[in-house]
Specification:
With 232 residues, this protein is α/β, with parallel strands linked by helices. The protein has a single domain (5-193), classed as Alpha-Beta Complex (Spore Coat Polysaccharide Biosynthesis Protein SpsA, Chain A), CATH 3.90.550.10. The protein has 9 helices and 7 strands. A 7-stranded mixed sheet has the order 3-2-1-4-6-5-7, sandwiched between helices. Helix 8 crosses helix 9. The mean pLDDT is 92.
């Protein structure tokens, strides 16, 4: 769905941050299940995320996981987005670092997303920006217990020690924010893509999605199914 006009002003003041890896370095769990097709799946998911970035009315930042991912971006990206390479150990440490850099540059409302959730749309991100009008933080829960979106209007507390990439992440993150006396709210849960079963669910959810990158992902998934690839 498109961005609701009532969110337009808030969205224009909110920085959208995409955390990403080059497709050939993504989706290790998928790689063990569908082989080389995992990199193709990752490329389609990345295209879906870029589709949303292109339509976002506010500032956009790409946060590649490592310098080699930044080098891949240099060779492939066509839009002139700002790039901040993640630094640190856990994903939480790296989010803290990117968050700190952007706030030093004057950004106040930051929304972090990844490439794992093709079900995200501008309406969903717009809801996050609206939530930050009267909340310190907003979380988009993943159905598996993780998160697909993290938004904040003040610096994140220390995140490095949380259980990233586990089913307890959302609960731990919400508790951490509460411990720091944040007013926090949740959006509706969304399904992300971590394994082959998730690809099957994504194919079902994308049946009526008219966005070009989502249609291309659906067509690729349907072709895999016709060819008998192990996507379930």
């Amino acid at each position: 769905m498109p961005l609701d006009p009532q969110y337009e002003a808030l969205a224009s003041q909110s920085c959208l941050v995409l955390c990403l890896k080059a497709p050939e370095r993504s989706k290790r769990r998928l790689l063990s299940q569908i082989g080389d097709a995992a990199a193709v799946a990752a490329a389609h998911l990345l295209a879906c995320a870029f589709e949303d970035l292109a339509a976002w009315p506010g500032p956009v930042v790409l946060a590649p996981a490592e310098r080699r991912d930044a080098a891949w971006l240099d060779a492939t990206a066509t839009a002139p987005y700002d790039v901040i390479v993640q630094r640190g150990g856990s994903l939480g440490d790296r989010i803290n670092g990117v968050d700190r850099t952007l706030r030093e540059r004057g950004q106040e409302r930051l929304i972090f997303i990844g490439t794992d959730c093709p079900a995200i749309d501008l309406a969903y991100i717009g809801e996050a920006t609206a939530a930050l009008a009267d909340h310190d933080g907003v979380l988009g829960p993943a159905r598996d217990g993780g998160v697909v979106l993290m938004g904040a209007r003040k610096p994140w507390p220390t995140l490095g020690d949380l259980a990233w990439s586990t089913p307890s992440l959302h609960a731990e993150l919400r508790l951490r924010l509460r411990e720091h006396h944040w007013k926090v709210t949740d959006l509706a849960a969304r399904a992300d893509v971590d394994d082959a079963a998730d690809l099957e669910l994504a194919a079902q959810q994308l049946q009526t999605d008219e966005r070009p990158a989502r249609k291309a992902l659906l067509e690729w998934l349907q072709r895999l199914q016709r060819e008998g690839a192990p996507v379930t």
